[in-house]
Amino acid sequence: CAFSVAQRAEEYGELATLPSAVKDRLLQMMTSKGKVSDSTLRQLVHPGTRTLDLQNCDVSDAGLQQMNCVQLRTALLRGCTKITGAGLQVLASRCPFLQVLDLSGCVAVSDAAIQALARHCTALQVVSLRGCTALSDVALLALGQSCRNLHSIYFSETQVLYIQGNKET
């Protein structure tokens, strides 16, 4: 039954009234098929959502800006190419307990967005910025200075050449 709903979620009216556990299961099923859009995200994500796996889904800033996931701990946004710094800044301000973030391939992510994440999400432990070509050393410095629990950061395929302040002279 849940699989059937997940396959045809866009055809159903209001999913927001479903119990949180059902919404979590539907979201998991839909993301595994890459079937999540901004509208389904708005209906299925709730304040108690702890994990959000939107890898390669058709989600944009509009979807992120509608979310209010105070309990969110993990956000996997790999390959969500419509997400920009504006959406991430809103996500950062609404998800203060975020610990794991994968932005691999999100080419429109800016230094300002990563600085907002560092400022608001100080519990970050793992961050992947692979292929985020618009970033510079400013983003990495902000994470390093603000996120004391950070133990892994991946930034291959970025434009970061050196860390300002740690450059050899």
UniProtKB/TrEMBL annotation:
Pfam families: DUF7885 (PF25372). Residues 50-146 form the F-box/LRR-repeat protein 15-like leucin rich repeat domain. Signal peptide: none annotated. It comes from the Eukaryota. SUPFAM superfamilies: RNI-like. Gene3D superfamilies: Ribonuclease Inhibitor. Transmembrane segments: none annotated. GO terms for cellular component: SCF ubiquitin ligase complex. Coiled coil: none annotated. One of its GO terms (biological process) is SCF-dependent proteasomal ubiquitin-dependent protein catabolic process. Belongs to the AMN1 family. PANTHER family: PARTNER OF PAIRED, ISOFORM B-RELATED, PROTEIN AMN1 HOMOLOG. This is Protein AMN1 homolog. It comes from Danionella cerebrum.
